[in-house]
Protein backbone atom coordinates (compact mmCIF):
# COMPACT_ATOMS: atom_id res chain seq x y z
CA UNK A 1 0.00 0.00 0.00
CA UNK A 2 1.17 3.51 -0.79
CA UNK A 3 2.33 5.62 2.15
CA UNK A 4 0.59 9.02 2.12
CA UNK A 5 1.50 12.10 4.12
CA UNK A 6 -1.04 14.57 5.49
CA UNK A 7 -0.77 16.86 2.46
CA UNK A 8 -1.62 14.02 0.10
CA UNK A 9 -4.53 12.94 2.29
CA UNK A 10 -5.83 16.52 2.35
CA UNK A 11 -5.46 16.80 -1.42
CA UNK A 12 -7.32 13.52 -1.90
CA UNK A 13 -10.17 14.80 0.29
CA UNK A 14 -10.26 18.05 -1.70
CA UNK A 15 -10.35 16.14 -4.98
CA UNK A 16 -13.13 13.86 -3.71
CA UNK A 17 -15.18 16.87 -2.60
CA UNK A 18 -14.76 18.77 -5.87
CA UNK A 19 -15.58 15.67 -7.93
CA UNK A 20 -18.67 14.98 -5.81
CA UNK A 21 -19.99 18.54 -6.17
CA UNK A 22 -19.67 18.56 -9.94
CA UNK A 23 -20.81 14.96 -10.51
CA UNK A 24 -23.85 15.64 -8.33
CA UNK A 25 -24.48 18.71 -10.49
CA UNK A 26 -24.29 16.57 -13.64
CA UNK A 27 -26.88 14.24 -12.15
CA UNK A 28 -29.14 17.09 -11.04
CA UNK A 29 -29.22 18.80 -14.44
CA UNK A 30 -28.91 15.85 -16.78
CA UNK A 31 -30.55 12.78 -15.29
CA UNK A 32 -34.10 13.20 -16.60
CA UNK A 33 -35.74 14.76 -19.61
CA UNK A 34 -37.50 17.29 -17.38
CA UNK A 35 -34.27 18.33 -15.66
CA UNK A 36 -32.50 18.70 -19.01
CA UNK A 37 -35.33 20.89 -20.34
CA UNK A 38 -35.16 23.16 -17.28
CA UNK A 39 -31.36 23.39 -17.45
CA UNK A 40 -31.48 24.08 -21.18
CA UNK A 41 -33.87 26.98 -20.53
CA UNK A 42 -31.57 28.31 -17.83
CA UNK A 43 -28.56 28.02 -20.14
CA UNK A 44 -30.30 30.18 -22.74
CA UNK A 45 -29.87 33.18 -20.42
CA UNK A 46 -26.23 33.23 -21.59
CA UNK A 47 -27.43 34.11 -25.08
CA UNK A 48 -30.03 36.73 -24.29
CA UNK A 49 -28.58 39.09 -26.92
CA UNK A 50 -29.58 36.55 -29.58
CA UNK A 51 -33.27 36.79 -30.31
CA UNK A 52 -35.33 33.79 -29.30
CA UNK A 53 -35.54 31.23 -32.00
CA UNK A 54 -33.46 28.68 -33.82
CA UNK A 55 -30.01 30.16 -33.13
CA UNK A 56 -30.64 30.85 -29.45
CA UNK A 57 -31.82 27.26 -29.02
CA UNK A 58 -28.87 25.90 -31.00
CA UNK A 59 -26.30 27.84 -28.95
CA UNK A 60 -28.07 26.93 -25.72
CA UNK A 61 -28.12 23.24 -26.60
CA UNK A 62 -24.43 23.29 -27.54
CA UNK A 63 -23.53 25.12 -24.31
CA UNK A 64 -25.67 22.82 -22.17
CA UNK A 65 -24.24 19.57 -23.54
CA UNK A 66 -20.73 21.03 -23.47
CA UNK A 67 -21.30 21.88 -19.81
CA UNK A 68 -22.36 18.30 -19.03
CA UNK A 69 -19.25 17.01 -20.80
CA UNK A 70 -16.91 19.47 -19.06
CA UNK A 71 -18.40 18.80 -15.62
CA UNK A 72 -18.40 15.01 -15.87
CA UNK A 73 -15.04 14.61 -17.63
CA UNK A 74 -13.27 17.23 -15.53
CA UNK A 75 -14.57 15.69 -12.32
CA UNK A 76 -13.48 12.20 -13.29
CA UNK A 77 -10.02 13.40 -14.33
CA UNK A 78 -9.59 15.15 -10.97
CA UNK A 79 -11.05 12.27 -8.97
CA UNK A 80 -8.86 9.62 -10.54
CA UNK A 81 -5.76 11.79 -10.73
CA UNK A 82 -5.26 10.84 -14.37
CA UNK A 83 -4.89 14.53 -15.24
CA UNK A 84 -5.73 16.94 -12.46
CA UNK A 85 -4.62 19.97 -14.48
CA UNK A 86 -6.77 19.12 -17.49
CA UNK A 87 -9.74 18.28 -15.24
CA UNK A 88 -9.37 21.54 -13.33
CA UNK A 89 -9.11 23.48 -16.60
CA UNK A 90 -12.31 21.84 -17.84
CA UNK A 91 -14.09 22.77 -14.62
CA UNK A 92 -12.79 26.35 -14.82
CA UNK A 93 -14.18 26.61 -18.36
CA UNK A 94 -17.54 25.38 -17.07
CA UNK A 95 -17.64 27.45 -13.88
CA UNK A 96 -17.13 30.91 -15.41
CA UNK A 97 -20.32 30.79 -17.51
CA UNK A 98 -22.14 29.20 -14.54
CA UNK A 99 -21.31 32.30 -12.48
CA UNK A 100 -22.73 34.47 -15.26
CA UNK A 101 -25.92 32.38 -15.41
CA UNK A 102 -26.52 32.76 -11.66
CA UNK A 103 -25.84 36.49 -11.79
CA UNK A 104 -28.28 37.01 -14.64
CA UNK A 105 -30.90 34.81 -12.98
CA UNK A 106 -30.64 36.74 -9.73
CA UNK A 107 -31.31 39.97 -11.64
CA UNK A 108 -34.09 38.40 -13.69
CA UNK A 109 -35.98 37.27 -10.57
CA UNK A 110 -36.81 40.86 -9.64
CA UNK A 111 -37.61 41.82 -13.23
CA UNK A 112 -40.05 38.93 -13.47
CA UNK A 113 -41.69 39.77 -10.15
CA UNK A 114 -42.42 43.31 -11.33
CA UNK A 115 -43.86 41.94 -14.56
CA UNK A 116 -46.09 39.47 -12.68
CA UNK A 117 -47.27 42.13 -10.23
CA UNK A 118 -48.78 44.11 -13.12
CA UNK A 119 -51.19 41.24 -13.80
CA UNK A 120 -51.98 40.23 -10.22
CA UNK A 121 -54.04 41.71 -7.44
CA UNK A 122 -52.58 43.78 -4.59
CA UNK A 123 -53.09 40.93 -2.10
CA UNK A 124 -50.48 38.76 -3.82
CA UNK A 125 -47.81 41.44 -4.34
CA UNK A 126 -46.04 40.73 -1.05
CA UNK A 127 -45.95 37.00 -1.80
CA UNK A 128 -44.60 37.61 -5.29
CA UNK A 129 -41.94 39.93 -3.90
CA UNK A 130 -40.97 37.34 -1.27
CA UNK A 131 -40.58 34.67 -3.97
CA UNK A 132 -38.44 37.04 -6.02
CA UNK A 133 -36.27 37.80 -3.00
CA UNK A 134 -35.81 34.08 -2.26
CA UNK A 135 -34.90 33.44 -5.89
CA UNK A 136 -32.50 36.38 -5.92
CA UNK A 137 -30.80 35.23 -2.71
CA UNK A 138 -30.57 31.63 -3.92
CA UNK A 139 -28.93 32.58 -7.18
CA UNK A 140 -26.54 34.97 -5.46
CA UNK A 141 -25.62 32.20 -3.03
CA UNK A 142 -25.07 29.74 -5.88
CA UNK A 143 -22.97 32.32 -7.69
CA UNK A 144 -20.83 32.75 -4.57
CA UNK A 145 -20.43 28.96 -4.34
CA UNK A 146 -19.21 28.98 -7.93
CA UNK A 147 -16.67 31.71 -7.15
CA UNK A 148 -15.28 29.47 -4.39
CA UNK A 149 -15.24 26.45 -6.70
CA UNK A 150 -13.47 28.56 -9.31
CA UNK A 151 -10.77 29.41 -6.75
CA UNK A 152 -10.36 25.73 -5.81
CA UNK A 153 -10.14 24.73 -9.47
CA UNK A 154 -7.54 27.41 -10.15
CA UNK A 155 -5.56 26.03 -7.20
CA UNK A 156 -5.86 22.48 -8.57
CA UNK A 157 -4.76 23.72 -11.98
CA UNK A 158 -1.70 25.58 -10.64
CA UNK A 159 -0.51 22.98 -8.14
CA UNK A 160 1.88 20.16 -8.83
CA UNK A 161 0.04 16.98 -9.67
CA UNK A 162 -0.63 14.90 -6.60
CA UNK A 163 -0.81 11.14 -6.56
CA UNK A 164 -3.25 9.27 -8.74
CA UNK A 165 -6.18 7.55 -7.10
CA UNK A 166 -4.87 4.27 -8.55
CA UNK A 167 -1.42 4.68 -6.93
CA UNK A 168 -2.94 4.50 -3.46
CA UNK A 169 -3.67 0.81 -3.81
CA UNK A 170 -0.38 -0.26 -5.39
Describe this structure in words.
The chain has 170 residues and is mostly helical. The protein has helices spanning 6-30, 33-43, 54-80, 84-118, 125-158. The termini are close together.
Number of strands: 0
Q: Estimate what percentage of residues fall within beta strands.
A: under 5%
Number of helices: 5
- Average pLDDT taken over every residue: 87
Provide a concise account of the structure shown:
Helix content is 78%, strand content 0%.
Relevant terms:
0% strand, elongated, 170 residues, mainly alpha, single chain
Note the topology:
Blueprint: H1 6-30, H2 33-43, H3 54-80, H4 84-118, H5 125-158
Helix pairs in contact: 1-3, 2-3, 3-4, 4-5
